[in-house]
Amino acid sequence: MNSPLELNDPVLEISGLSVDYGFGPDAVHAVADASLTLRSGEVLGLAGESGSGKSTLAYAVTRLLRDPGVITGGSAVFHGRDGAQDLFDLDAEEMRELRWSQISVVFQSAMNSLNPVFTIGVQLTDVLRAHRKDMGRAERKQRAAELLDMVGITADRLRSYPHELSGGMRQRVMIAMALALEPRVLIMDEPTTALDVVTQREILQELGELRERLGFAVLFITHDLSLLVELADSIAVMYAGRIVEHAPAEQLFRNPRHPYTEGLLGSFPALHGERRAMTGIPGSPPDLRSLPPGCPFHVRCGYAMDACSTDVPELLPIHWEPTEPRRAACLLHTDGFEAPESLKKTAEIGSTL
Amino acid sequence: MTENPEIPVLEAKNLVKHFPVRRGWAIRGAYVHAVEDIDMALHSGKVTAVVGESGSGKSTLARLLAQRTSLTGGELLWNGGPAPKGGRAYSSEVQLVLQDPFASLNPVHGLRYILGRPLKIHGTADGKSTDEAIKALLERVALTPSEQFIEKMPHELSGGQRQRVAIARALAVRPKVLLADEPVSMLDVSIRLGVLNLLADLRDRERLAILYVTHDLASARYLADTITVMYAGRVVESGPAVTVADSPQHPYTQLLLSAVPDPDRDGAPRLTGAGSPPSLIHPPAGCRFHPRCPFAMAKCKVQTPPAITVGDAHTSACWLHESAQTTPAADTTGAA
Asked: CB pairs below 8 Å between A and B: how many?
């Protein structure tokens, strides 16, 4: 059904996206000038702490922002079945058509977004009833059974109510529902945060297999950077509403360029090797209502210079390795400054990932 | 006060907790077997981590040790003798820090009140003025400058700072034992280590006995001296932290470790087992892990395995150790 798309063709191009909560001088800039490209068949990880704007970005792109959230600038070009269109230009009805059939979302507390008074079967067929009007009743039921089977749940569960399923199964049902119409883009906002590690691992493995079979692209939002390193093809790190670094996953893990990424990676105790004291990142996460001037991270940054408190760095290719497919928003990597050795590592990337 | 390092400050023997299941008004005679026959010893100057998934009984264990909920069976020993039966005598020695610092601090009170209460109730200000004692507490948990923090309300603090206040409140009564139930899981990643390092500091400088309850094996390995792994209300493995994390012996610990995100792992992880934990109303007979265990034998379905010594201070409750010294798949790195 999908028109042929080459792997690595962009499917969703977000550029210059800015989102405010509120108006005027009191507005909180939750997302500022964020640009990201999601390519077909790719898993793009979006990492950040609470309040970094990662969920707001997902809500904005799907036009599901609640008041007082306002998209104040930028575009989100979606390359769908009917050609490229800017999601922010569509009216509500066009957006409703597109949403779920081509872009679907699995939200943070998705497990709790199932309606407790309807069976799984009714809720799965409801999606089909709304978007596939030509499907008959028996056909819908069969498709629902297929979908459940796809995520490893037997079809007899169609008659179960949500409370009869475990958290992991409910999350699988949500993923099945999100994939019901074979979307091109799946946005997942902390889909496994509430689950146990074993269940999380099982779901992620299933997701990987489904992606290989169905070829959708995933925007995977999480605070768990160590999970993304395993899962994602490339990773974007957000801080205080801005994307501060974007690089291929293993590059970002082995050779971080932004001091915040470096600090974040140093905040996860290792599972192997010598036990050593680690420090995390000093200071507190930023308060979006009173961000420091200049680079929002400079107050917690060990490498901060005078210029950092005045200039807001842009997300640019690294000055001294301009050909690498990566960007960082840090003055240290711009012309005229010398980055410290720890942010200039060029360790070999293993071939196993 | 003399303390014998051999005798644990707080020791639990054969702890059992069953919660009655109610439907409407009637108790149906069914029970949730939340904690079953657990031995645990907390030594001063040591961190003991309890690792388990949700529903494994780790939080119930912390509450039992704090005497916040009554024991169905077993006993608590304090310095080798019977522990005081709850009340102020007990809470002045054993303090509990809860998971959610956004819920555990009363939002209508400032820090002066929140930290002043335990000082007054337990009379632990030590001749200093209450304000001085509060400032000293704030400094112990690295909330400086303390003269500014004492004036603040909880909503003015970040999650990490709130958790530090919750820890300071527990320290106010000068306890010997600190029970921390998932103290960092609600905090942002970048500030978790700060709180973990604070706990390590309290262990090293003040010789506190700390119970660190968590679902995160990596942080347990980082902080703890001993790791105890729980599954479905029972202890399945216990031993020195690095040994348990690096060469787990129990099949469940191996499964857990194979599922943890690990950027250093080569290739995709191989899960050693599947499924989800059992219902604790009707837990499986024998070893509670046997329905998920890839190595399950006939014996596992009938008899509960005892804790079998597999190394120096390292025990694993698995029948596989009865004959062999290690399980068939002690290698969990997933390297093919």
From this structure: 112
